[in-house]
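hey
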């Protein structure tokens, strides 16, 4: 039997749908990439701290912003803000996902402002509101990264 006939016989006996459809790996989400996984991890950890403060009634503590616990939080929040901005710059360089790119930049800027608002809060009500807003923002920081990727907008990077 010639090689051509042998190949033809094998092809006739094989399932053509297997040969025609190549397996496609699932798309990698940003949350699986190290930089974005770090953003999610840090956001969750800081959100948990804020949840703890809310549960412990820290809004009533007039000296809260002077505590070592809050100082450490400020440092961690500044680092997260830097990582959000790095994510924005990474996505801009890739030329992908204009919405997420803008959201990460906004989160970076808002996180700094929310922490400053908490530090400046003078009344229990102001501190309570600042803690709630900060918790909401940190939760958003998690959710936007773990959300399934949307279609690329095709717009040029800003």
């Amino acid at each position: 039997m010639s090689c051509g006939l042998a190949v033809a016989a094998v092809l006739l006996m094989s399932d053509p749908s297997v040969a025609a459809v190549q397996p496609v790996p699932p798309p990698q989400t940003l949350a699986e990439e190290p930089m974005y996984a770090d953003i999610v991890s840090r956001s969750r950890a800081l959100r948990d701290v804020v949840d703890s403060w809310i549960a412990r009634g820290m809004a009533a503590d007039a000296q809260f912003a002077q505590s070592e616990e809050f100082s450490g939080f400020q440092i961690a929040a500044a680092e997260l803000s830097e990582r959000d901005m790095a994510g924005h710059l990474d996505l801009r360089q890739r030329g992908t996902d204009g919405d997420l790119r803008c959201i990460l930049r906004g989160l970076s800027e808002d996180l700094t402002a929310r922490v400053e608002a908490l530090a400046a809060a003078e009344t229990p009500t102001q501190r309570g509101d600042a803690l709630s807003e900060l918790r909401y923002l940190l939760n958003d920081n998690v959710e936007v990264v773990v959300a399934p990727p949307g279609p690329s907008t095709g717009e040029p990077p800003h």
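Helices lie at 3-13, 16-20, 34-55, 68-94, 98-120, 124-146. The radius of gyration is 25 Å.
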